[in-house]
Amino acid sequence: MVKKYKEAAQVMGMNRPHNTPILEAKHTRDLHESEEKYKVELNRMDMKLVLELDQKVSDQQVTLEKAGVPGFYVTNHPQEVRLQMYLLEFILRLANAVSGSASL
User: Fold this and answer.
1) CA distance 37 to 45
2) Which listed site, 40, 69, 78, 102, has its alpha carbon 20 to 30 Å from 23?
3) Helix axes of 2-15 and 20-66: crossing angle, nearest 10 degrees
4) Following DSSP, what letter does each residue of 35-51 receive, concatenated?
5) Are 87 and 61 in contact (CB under 8 A)?
6) What single DSSP character describes residue 68?
7) CA 15/CA 99 separation, integer angstroms
8) What pLDDT digit, counting tens, does each position of 20-70 carry?
9) pTM of the model
10) Do the Cβ atoms of 57 and 63 come closer than 8 Å?
């Protein structure tokens, strides 16, 4: 895009030097529009990823609740989700410790 505008500026500058400020203003406007478009698209993708992660957390909560694991239920409350993460980490450490001692 920058290359296109530089080429256009050279052509316009040679033939019509009075159009150079107009061309530069258009270039600046187009650049700002592109940046805004990218920001919107990035925000949309971020939101999509957050929603997918939230769905994964919810699926995991349902599975562990159905398995009867204490402390697991469906919630979106950040402190409760963090507590569930700590519980899951603790369970995994216990499982690793038991499997490690069983192989000795």
Assistant:
1) 12
2) 40
3) 170
4) HHHHHHHHHHHHHHHHH
5) no
6) T
7) 80
8) 677 778 888 988 999 999 999 999 999 999 999 999 999 999 999 999 999
9) 0.63
10) no
Residues 64/74, Cβ–Cβ less than 8 Å: no
CB 72: neighbour CB atoms within 10 A? 21
Length of the chain: 104
User: Quick check: 16 pLDDT over 70?
Assistant: no
Q: How far apart are CA 7 and CA 76, in angstroms?
A: 54
Burial of 80 (0-12, 13-18, 19+ CB in 10 A): middle
Q: Give the CA angle between residues 6, 21, 35 to the nearest 5°.
A: 60
Cβ neighbors of 1 (< 8 A, separation 6 or more) are 30, 31, 34
Is the distance from CB of 64 to CB of 72 less than 8 angstroms? yes
Contact 73, 65 (CB under 8 A): yes
